């Protein structure tokens, strides 16, 4: 997949993935990878930025498999931002699909 396509939609996929339930970083990498191929080096800086922008809150939860895990929880601002991104994405992809179907390549 074109890296620019992935970069453009990654934030939306991350926000939507955490909307239904809180997730820790590696779990989120696994979830997002079901849609687009990503690695930890891509996800963690994005999580840090979204947390700094107050779209996520974090908390630690004990793990039976090692040290406590940092979980990401979507804030009210994060929900609104995710909804806005989704609306923009839907409009964007509809316009692109319509253009491609009409075959106007003049």
From TrEMBL:
Record Gene3D superfamilies: Winged helix-like DNA-binding domain superfamily/Winged helix DNA-binding domain
Transcription regulator PadR N-terminal domain: residues covered: 14-78
Annotated coiled-coil segments of the chain: none
Pfam family, one: PadR
Stored InterPro entries: Metal_resp_DNA-bind_regulator (IPR052509), Tscrpt_reg_PadR_N (IPR005149), WH-like_DNA-bd_sf (IPR036388), WH_DNA-bd_sf (IPR036390)
Domain of life: Bacteria
PANTHER family according to UniProt: PADR-FAMILY TRANSCRIPTIONAL REGULATOR, TRANSCRIPTIONAL REGULATOR, PADR FAMILY
Annotated protein name in UniProt: PadR family transcriptional regulator
Record lineage: Bacteria, Bacillati, Bacillota, Clostridia, Lachnospirales
